[in-house]
Specification:
alpha+beta; GMP Synthetase, Chain A, domain 3; three-stranded mixed beta sheet; 3 helices; about 40% helix
Length: about 80
């Protein structure tokens, strides 16, 4: 499974309106780094980030582990609201 699809699948399970989520991959200046941008509605940010950032940290851990198994690249996940 690709990292963007994995990230999108996990985030869509966390929110009440899965259709409002946008997940995109952007190129990085570093060769072995992937940047994933997650856009969520402002009212859903708490669900994605979680208390004290625990959900966001878990999301990053799962996606990073998947990357190490398949591509051995570092993943940066940025979560923003609109």
């Amino acid at each position: 499974m690709k990292l963007v699809e994995l990230t999108e699948m996990i985030v869509k399970e966390l929110v009440t309106d899965p259709e409002s989520i946008t997940v995109k991959e952007f190129p990085s200046e570093e060769e072995n780094t992937i940047i994933i941008q997650v856009m969520v509605p402002e009212d859903q940010m708490g669900r994605v980030i979680g208390k004290e950032g625990k959900m966001a940290k878990a999301l990053r851990t799962i996606v990073q582990a998947s990357s190490y198994i398949n591509d051995n690249k570092r993943v940066n996940i940025n979560i923003d609201s609109y």
